[in-house]
Prephenate dehydrogenase
Amino acid sequence: MKNIYMIGIGLIGGSFAIDIKKNNPDVVIHGISRKDETLNKALELNLIDKKATLDDIENADLVIVSIPVDATVKLLPTILDKISEDGLVIDAGSTKEAICKVVEHHPKRRNFLACHPIAGTENSGPTAAISGLYVGKTNIICEVEKTTFKLQEKALKLFMDIGMRIRYMDPVSHDKHIAYVSHLSHISSFMLGKTVIDKAKNERDIFDMAGSGFASTVRLAKSSPAMWTPIFKQNKENVIETLEEYINNLQQFKELMQKDNFSEIFNEMENTNHIKQILNGIK
Ligand code: NAP
């Protein structure tokens, strides 16, 4: 692999670029982005070697698409139109059904691998890119059988070299499950942040009184709305279902409080402590 094109060089694309370059110092990483200032920043941070445009993609051995999921749905067919017969296109989007659907009948579908790296932080843009983001993290691959075997092998080697584990899933199950473990957590964090900001109008009070529990629970509320709005739009049905169950649980908790049923509140929390065993080992 000689020429790698990163479309989107924020947290996800930039972090891929750093570790791929570390493992393969001879590859040339080309950056493509909407804004020239983003490309300049990526050059300054050594995330990319050169600036490029979509027309250059015909020269790519590998293209990694790490832009918001609505932009991926729009752009992916064009990227596949331009990729060479042996080129591989990988996406990193947090939803998978709409992305897989838009290229399902594309003549170069076999050059595409649909992925979702389960790794990230609340930060965004090129300055958020970090080395080692993917070490020990899972990469969910969807519809692997639709990608040429030779290109699957290339992609697997690349992911294993940067320390990732692989899981296979169909796009519909991916979107259903990820709504619970990722999308709902973000909504919960955003709305917790909103509730506190609305109440404590004095920011100094929030700063003085918020403990580390609040800071860690509300961490995800710092995430990029530009990235998250299209995710909620694409996964609307599943996200609404998770929200209904979550609101139901909040409602029940409130009713237990109103009825002074603190023994049941104790039980609810004790049962949920089981999350410790489930999450054991996740950093
Ligand atoms: P990010 O740090 O905000 O970077 C997004 C990049 O996309 C930027 O380089 C931006 O460049 C470009 N971009 C933004 N809007 C665009 C548009 N409409 N058309 C074309 N390019 C656009 O976001 P990220 O966290 O790396 O996320 C990238 C992808 O990875 C998303 O699909 C997301 O769902 C997925 N993902 C994110 C996480 C996470 O925790 N953050 C985890 C797994 C997967 P300009 O400045 O030039 O606009």
Observations:
- DSSP finds twelve helices and eight strands in the chain.
- The beta strands are 3-7, 28-32, 50-51, 62-65, 88-91, 112-118, 138-142, 165-169.
